[in-house]
Amino acid sequence: MSSSLQARLSRLKRPGGAEAPPALERLEREMLGADDGPGGEALSLKDRLQRLVNAAATKERQRRRGPQPVPLEELVDGMRIENLRGELFRVDSSVHLEVRHGDVPLSRVHAIEPGTVALLAGDDALSGFDLREAVFLDTETTGLAGGAGTAAFLIGLGWFEGDRFRVRQCFMRDYHEEAALLEAVRAELARFDRVVTFNGKMFDLPLLDARFRLNRGRFPLTDAPHLDLLHPARRLWKARLESCRLQSLEAALLGLRRTGDIPGEEIPHVYFDWVRRRDARLLARVFEHNRQDIVSLAALAVLACRWVEEGRAEDPRDLFSLARVMERARRFETSEELYLRALDGDPGSLRGPALLRLAWRAKRRGEHARAEAYWVEAGEAGEVEAWRELAMHHEHRTRDVDAALFAVERGLALVEAARLREVRAWHVAEAFEKRGARLRRKRATSGPAPSGGTRRGPGSPPAS
């Protein structure tokens, strides 16, 4: 009971207080409402005061408990579904393919070539992978670390159907509904033979496989072709973006910024609170979070395929990353073109790696002079590997011992500072020192250089 109410009641109890009757009536109207007060004239003053005290105590208990829980059905447009294993809650929604999700039209999925997903993932096992026939899967769970105690309480599925992208979310309202949830998901997945996730190889699919086994079932897509978009996304965009989390990619690539979204690390606590209090206000945001994840997953898959097919990258760092993807897929001509485009811009710290990749291709084709030129430029950009290649090139191909020694010395100078704190640097430095010692022995036994001075290759020191 608040101090102000105590003070007002104490004034009412004073004998002879002239203001007591009208003040009491006003207080009854405030505390009890027009219906309940002040029609207590038949009650004694003591009973009327006690009634006010009880009303104040009730309001205080309500204040401490917080607002009344809001049922799930009032905030989430779904339905109760029953199957052989019990009951669950299901939500269906869809997006027209002509409606852009951020900057990406989902309708572009119909133009993707059959081999593009395999190129994107660098995995021949995904040859012929058609996004239109795949299920896009995302889970919300009771924990983020996995393990036997972690369960998926909300499983979202998305798929292309006609001119729409459909999303179906299956939700267990309490732990005893898990068997029904998994049965509903099993029935839905029976229509698909390939799956797309974001970090699903490490988290979602192993978790679902474990939950199905604990419920004496089998996850239908355990052996299905699987595009885990996290890994292609990192290969395509990590060089430029600080984070390759799904929502970071949304903002940077799709132009989407969620408002009122719930952070993923809070979602398990929201579910625990729902099980305890049955208040759906925060849980409704979890449903929307999951729906957005699934639609964004589809949009990013379409966008990544467009990058591979059309070479859409413009930033030199993205060009370098796309070149690596194409090289991994053995599209060497395309990758070389992309490396050169990256070098025409300003790829920053990636300039040296791009030159090394071009040198490697030139060496494979037998274009040793071109490879040497790339190595020299890469070495000047600070690439230790370039000086190692130059040392081998001059020792074994041009037979220029002085040029080879110069390359050894430049490589040692670059790696020397790191050799005391990095094991790999120590091994690289040791290899340079062994090569340098061998080259000095060769020079000592080869006699004086031919008249006209020592023959030098590119990258060797100028004549004195």
Q: If you had to describe this structure to a student in words, what would you say it looks like?
A:
The termini are far apart. α2 (20-36) crosses α3, α8 (230-237) crosses α12 (316-328) and α16 (384-398) packs antiparallel against α17. With 464 residues, the protein is of the alpha+beta class. The chain is built from 18 helices and nine strands.
Features:
elongated, Serine Threonine Protein Phosphatase 5, Tetratricopeptide repeat, Nucleotidyltransferase, domain 5, 464 residues, alpha+beta, two-stranded antiparallel sheet, 18 helices, 54% helix
Task: Summarize the helices and strands and which ones pair or pack.
Blueprint lengths: L2 H11 L6 H17 L8 H21 L6 H4 L3 E5 L2 E11 L3 E2 L2 E2 L10 H6 L13 E7 L10 E10 L2 E8 L6 H12 L5 E3 L2 H15 L11 E3 L1 H8 L8 H9 L12 H11 L3 H30 L5 H13 L3 H13 L6 H14 L3 H13 L3 H15 L2 H15 L7 H23 L19
Parallel strand pairs: 5-8, 8-9
Antiparallel strand pairs: 1-2, 2-7, 3-4, 5-6, 6-7
